[in-house]
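Late entry, written up from scratch paper. The run itself happened at the end of the previous shift, but nothing got recorded in the book at the time, so transcribing now.
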Amino acid sequence: MPQHPLITTEQAQLLLAQTSKSISTIILGKNKQIQLALSCLLAGGHLLIEDLPGVGKTTLSLTLARVFGLDFQRIQFTSDLLPSDVLGVSIFDTHNQSFEFHQGPVFTQVLLADEINRSTPKTQSALLEAMEEKQVTQDGVTRSLPKPFFVIATQNPMEQVGTFPLPESQLDRFLMRINIGYPDQQAEMELLKGDNRHEMIKHLTTVITPDQLIDMQSGVDKIHMSQAILDYVLSLTRSSRLSPWFISGLSPRAGLALQRCARAWAFLQKRDHVLPEDVQQVLPCVAAHRLQVHPEHQDKNMDDLITLLIKQVPI
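Output as recorded:
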């Protein structure tokens, strides 16, 4: 059992409010995206951020690691990156006459996989075991990763030059996918007039310790989800499978992901139970990267289709 102080739900929610406020001093005008990123972290999942370069994807990742006091490593994914550059490599030690394993950057608490879709599928797949099992197997030896372990991957739009699409198995490892988008006019003016964001991050203080975060993740599991809400989650996943809009619907794993994210969102809203609105708030970020639009409906936007799915499934 980990020896760390337990905190009450009220204390946790107060600390989370302070954390959100601290992050919003760096990431301006993006409160919804901040709440979704916090929900993903509280649910114990991994986050995929897809957007154009320069809108704050890396800045958000650095800020999250800082306010939670988590060890942080960044990997810049490129077309010539190798799996050993991520996981580590065994090097022969002439003094001991044996191979010694040198850990890669994946052995950290927060791993930023920057521009993950600029690397080849072979290198992308190096993260599969780490993300799912929280461990790395190299040379027949399995090594556990630190706790908590949180992967934040950034992805450039697929129409940009030099990108490789993430396979479905890799996308499914991400609990949520969010878009940050351009800031509004007022927020962008504050950015232009304000200090350098990376310098401001250096002066951020830790609000929640890693041990407290682990406590909060355990607290999220205790958020009550009634049978009616479970029926609603099941109706959404099954309706996606029957819908003519998608090639294939949401898997049972996606249903479990939706359940976890809804609990985390309710926890952030200072409630001890899940409402249908919690499920609806997180569904687009849980479902969009797991669904593929049917060729006959390529003219439709994925977010619009998910909105229609929510409207057609009764509460």
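Residues 114 and 198 are 16 Å apart (CA to CA).
(Scratch paper discarded after transcription.)
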